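Protein Record: Sequence and Backbone Structure Tokens
======================================================

Structure line: whole-number tokens from a learned vocabulary of local backbone shapes, matched to residues.

Purpose: to set a sequence beside its fold so the mapping can be learned.

___
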Amino acid sequence: MIGRALLAALVALGAGAGCSERPMMPEISRLEPDRADVGQSMHVAVIGRQFFAAVRASYDDEQRSRAETTFSLWLGDTPLGAVTFMSASELRAVVPATLAEGRYRLRLRDPRGREATLDDAFTVGSAAAADGRADVADAAPEVGADLGPDAGRDATADAADASQDTDADTNADAGLDGQADVGADADASADTTVPDSSVDTTSDMTVDGGPPKPVVQLVRSDPFGDGTPFLFVFEHGGDLYVGPRKDGHGAVRSKADGANATKVDFALPADTTGNTSANLATPPFPSVGAGGCQANTLACGPDNEDGRGLFTSGTITGKRWLLLGGGHSSGTLGYIYMSDAVNGATLPFNYVDLHALFGNTVHTISASHILSDRVYLGFASSGAQRPYLLMLKSTPAAPGLDARDPTDAEDLRAYDMPGIGSAGTVAMIDAITDFGGRLYLANGGGCMRATTPQPGNYRDAPQDWSNCTPGAAAWGLYGASMTTKHTDLEPRDKAIPQMAAYRGQLYMARNTSAGPQLWVCAPNGSGTPGRCDPGDWSLVAADAQSSCRFGNASNTHITLLVATATALYVGYDNANDGIVIFRSTAAAPATRADFEGQSGCSATLPACQGIGGNGFGTTSNARINQGVALRFTGKDYIYVSTGDGSGAASIHRIVP
């Protein structure tokens, strides 16, 4: 429930404003940020003063009053979305992507119908530089930025900065601290009924008390402007990277919030020694390959790669490295590419030749992880030996490295491991992570963990590995999801799309023939203390069918499982409603009641949408391409790459 002192002060403030001899008119000082690209949606803060609620008596109960905080905002004649009352000096809203190029007047209307305007408050214009590179002037405001004189103040500092707790009887979301969720109505409202000692609410805002409720920000939509349908997202050198482009050419580098976005090119070398690159075109190669490219042209990769593989980064012996890989729709993958460049208009890569470690039916990289300066790489294969897991021990100097086994890299022989499956026409390592300083890997067949910090291959050192496949009956109820794809893998194609460590437990997302499951390992339940053994696993938020859909039958694939220090996030592909993401801040989430959605609603409620609204406000965000927790300037964010499998992908971030 709302604090009585705060609520009384809010009512008094609003009533006083309404009864004064001279009406206190709202005033607008500025809009932050104050510009956007054409076609860019953006979260903004309206800074000013005297943004007062209207307080009216309730006709149902003479002891109750109603504080109305319905504000409306327009840029020109276009209404802003998700208008949210933050305090007497701040509102937040979403600028739609439909504004044409030009300068716009901001108009505000408060709950009493009083208006204020600010000329030339917002500018929409192309951010393309003369050389054709995209440079974004501003994007979604960084959390922690100065959003006005009241930003960051404790609620007790200003009577108008009122917020409500969840009403325990109704489980309704309450608050006046203003979660600005993408996908809210254009004129979002918060009607609060104020009794003497209790509060009933229909507000759709953040719940007071406990962790702050997450806000979703659109970082960038269609960053290449060409309809690229799938994007990887990661941090490198303090910047945000997304890519590659749908034709395999380059990436976009920006600040954490999408500002100052610049297109960067790839330059990939040819291997001219030992097993040489297959592409006969003249290097350097600008593309890692894409579907339908013509062999022996610069449209394909250096080894005639013709599909998407993996694009990510990590730290090896204190240095940041980019990792890039393509795929072969019918041939055999033989190379990955690495770069230690952190800036510049072109990223020069070196090759790593892996032919000495592979069979001839490896198609693409399916997973990667760096632990103790070793790069672990999982691959999809359709050969008799499948899947492959390699440990890369050396980094490449220009122009590249012909990896020797086991000096530079080692085949860990995952295809011999009892917990790793090879069923289906294509088998892959789905996910790799670490937990308690040990490596964990999983696919449709189960889970294996290393027993030493740097394990050897399973044939020569089986003692370095232990089976961690869940032993509970629910694991064997349904068969694991399988794919026939050789390249262009998505999370929905994997039986185990992600694993995540959270508060001393390991969580595993699983897709089965009957629907998604969420598993948790409490590592001290059986077997080795601190390690996951078969008896340590149990289902989380399971329904009567031992699935985990959070009550939505359209949540067909679990495709996101990410943790920060304070929350666990789980997300689904949903073709009908758009993606659905819930989170838990509980120490050991076990049931649906431990998870929350939009504005803190309980995941047990049928009407509870995911964080930011289902699909982040649009059903075109039907699939999760990737979800990852990234840290910028001391803050954790959840970045989510979304799309529908064919249309342009977007990058959003969840601000916890």
Remarks:
- The chain has one helix and 43 strands.
- The first helix runs from residue 4 to 19.
- The domain at 4-210 is CATH 2.60.40.10 (Immunoglobulin-like).
- The mean pLDDT is 85.
